[in-house]
Each structure stands twice: as structure tokens, then as C-alpha cells.
Amino acid sequence: MPVLSLPRFPLAAMLLLCAPALGAAAADFTVQVAPLADQKAVFATVESLDVVPARARIGGTVGLLAVKAGDSATPGQVLAVVADDKLLLRIATIDAQIAGLHSSLEQARADLARAETLYRQGSGPRVTMEQARTALDVANAAIQARVSERAVVDQQIAEGRVLAPVGGRVLTVPVTNGTVVLPGDTLASIAARNYVLRLRAPERHAAFIRLGDRVRLDTTGRGGPGVVAFGTITRLYPRIEDGRVVADADMAGLDAYFVGERVTVWIGAGPRPAIVIPAALIRTRFGLDYALVRRGAAVVETPIQRGRPTPSPEMTDGVEILSGLVAGDALVQP
């Protein structure tokens, strides 16, 4: 009697197609059709909102340069020292004048004491005593004037220290030790650490860019696989430059980038209906993609067509599905 040969199916496939579904239905992922922003890749640069120059307040020669390009600076840090030898000569001159005025002051005090003694004894006129008192006051005023002048020179010497106006990263240092500078010359440029992404999108996307829109940074080569960074558009510039819309986006983690570095950013270019599921729900065998769909009491493996990755803050591993699924399908974790 002939023996009927049954087709051979792997035991796992038979259990998959015929066995009742295991696990709670609450763990299933329900497929939904939702508006998806059609994303376009544009170039952006990492910029600092505030690039502040550190300027010399006096003229002279750079005697000490304490920073170089790439260093980090804190507010009030001494970046360089500008020295002027003429200020030291002025201090020496003023000190000599003050010493001479002190001698005149002692002489005026002695003259006043002598005139007061003679006036009390009735041997000297009152006019002589008043003249001696006036001479003493003039000597005191002259000393105070020279002391104030010396304080001005001391302040000028103190202003030779070039301080960092803000904290941040030193971008440029256009001088070296021994460079002659004038008041107002820039000794360093400092970028404050409020970095933003400056986007330049084609003019045709101007109708779709709005304040508060989310953008996605392409971290290829920076954050490694699986790292997704998102930002928010915080400023739209009203002027179109060279056929491009300029916008700023805030994003965390930009301190690791160079100022002026070009990166790729994905922006929204209008919504469209789409199906997005987590990449963990997709099985790939021999180049084909499948998803496990719950059909009543059974779980069926359905072929699907995978689209491009569409990560979002709610679904960092989201993948668009072009065909094979419909709204309402319940997907099971492989």
C-alpha cells in the first residue's frame, strides 16, 4: 500500500502558523496610519550666538600671552598682558615729584608753626600767619594731585591685563609675544558656549519650516550606531540669502562639535500619511523582511516592504513600512 508523503515544514513554522498566540494581547503593537513629516536632508553649521572679542585697553607690547586657539576660557581670566615702558617712567617721575612736595610740605608746616608762635607772642603780624597756613594747604593739595595722578597710571598698568569678557572657547589669537598693539586691538576671539545649529534650507521649503519644528541631526561618525539627536527650531531669519532660508535650532550635545563644522540635518517638508513601526518588530531572512501579525488566535508571518528609517523622540528605532501592513494589524514581538 503506497505511503502518502506529507510536506515537511519546520516545527517552529508549524507552531507559528497553527498554534494559538501566546502572551497577553497588551504586548502587541497596533499598526496605525499617522501623518509623517516628509524629511529632507539639508546642511547646517555649528555656530555660537555670541563671538566676543577680547580687546586691549591700552597701547603697548604684548609681554605675556596666556592662551592659544582652542583653549577654554572662563569669565575674567587673564588672556594676555600688554606692557608700556613709558608708564613705568611716568611713575618714577611722579614719585620724585611727590618726594619733593613732601619736603615743601614739611617746610610749610615749620613756617606755619613759627608764624603762629610769633603771632601769639605779639611779635609777628597776622598776615604772615595766614600766608603760612595757605602755603601749607597748597602743599597738601599738590601732594594729593600727584598721588591721584599716580593712581591713574597704576590703573593704566592694571588695564594692561586683557581679561576674557565671557566664558567659552578661544577661536582665534591673532597676536604673539612681542606684538605691538593699540587701544582697541583684538587679542583673542571667544565663542560663548551657547551653540546652535544654523540651517540653510532651499527656498522651496520656506512654507514648511515653522518655529518649534523638530529637526534630526545625522550623527554618523559622531555618536556611533543607534544614537539619535533631536533639536527644535527656535529662530527663523526673515531674509532669504542666496535662495536659502536660514534658521537656528537648539540641540543638546553641540559642545563636542567644532565651531563652523558642517553637519547634515533632517527637516520636515510637509506631512503625508504613513505607517511606522519599531525596527525590533521586523524579521529579516535571506534579504526579505517579515512581520508577525496576529490573526485571531494564530500568529502569521507576513512579508513587508521596508522603507527608510524615521526615528523620532517617541520611537527612536522607527521604520516606515511601504506595503504588507494595514491599519489595525496587531504585531507580535519576534
What would you note in describing this structure?
The protein is an alpha+beta fold and 334 residues long. It folds into three domains: 11-36 and 273-332, conserved putative lor/sdh protein from methanococcus maripaludis s2 fold (Beta Barrel), CATH 2.40.420; 40-50 and 193-271, Elongation Factor Tu (Ef-tu), domain 3, CATH 2.40.30; 51-189, OB fold (Dihydrolipoamide Acetyltransferase, E2P), CATH 2.40.50.100. Helix content is 23%, strand content 39%. The chain has three helices and 20 strands. The chain has helices at 11-18, 85-121, 126-158, and strands at residues 29-30, 33-48, 51-55, 60-65, 72-73, 78-83, 161-163, 168-172, 180-181, 186-192, 195-202, 214-217, 229-236, 244-250, 262-278, 282-285, 288-295, 298-309, 318-323, 330-332. The strands form three sheets. Strands 2-11-14-13-12-15 form a six-stranded antiparallel beta barrel. Helix 2 (85-121) packs antiparallel against helix 3. It is rod-shaped, with a radius of gyration of 40 Å.
Q: What descriptors fit this protein?
A:
alpha+beta; 334 residues; 39% strand; conserved putative lor/sdh protein from methanococcus maripaludis s2 fold; 3 helices; Elongation Factor Tu (Ef-tu), domain 3
